Amino acid sequence: MKKSMVFLLAILAASNAYSIGQVNSAKVTQIRVDGSGKVMVFFDKPIGGTPASCVHDAYKSALGVDASTEGGKAVLSMALAAKATGSPVTAYGWGVCGVYGGYVVETWNHGFLK
């Protein structure tokens, strides 16, 4: 591979590494579950940090997850527990919108239930 191509790939990877949204000590206000297994978890404050540029304005306080996967089921379980108990959540995105066709809402990476 040419050095210029390697350099370009390194720049792209580095720029995405810093483009992640996060929400700290937020309450879960609602959970949208679609028949396809896609889920949006909405918080009482907007996603901060550097949210993915693909996020639609209507979903600036949400993160998306695919609950048809084992990891997605775990995230949904945590979100439901947080909603039911009113416990605050800290969550981080991936910096991409991968759940709803590559746009709309940032994809959930990891989070904590406090």
Based on CA inertia axes, which overall geometry fits?
globular
The top-level CATH class is: Mainly Beta
Quickly give the structural class: alpha+beta
Helix-strand topology string: HEEEEEHEE
The helical percent reads 25-40%
The CATH architecture category equals Beta Barrel
Describe the structure.
It is built from two helices and seven strands. By secondary structure, it is an alpha+beta fold. The protein has a single domain, classed as OB fold (Dihydrolipoamide Acetyltransferase, E2P) (Beta Barrel). The strands form two sheets. Strands 4-1-6-7 form a four-stranded antiparallel β-sheet, covered by helices on one side. A three-stranded antiparallel β-sheet has the order 2-3-5, covered by helices on one side. The longest helix has 16 residues, at 70-85.
Features:
single chain, 114 residues, alpha+beta, OB fold (Dihydrolipoamide Acetyltransferase, E2P), 4-stranded antiparallel β-sheet, 3-stranded antiparallel β-sheet, 2 helices, 27% helix, globular
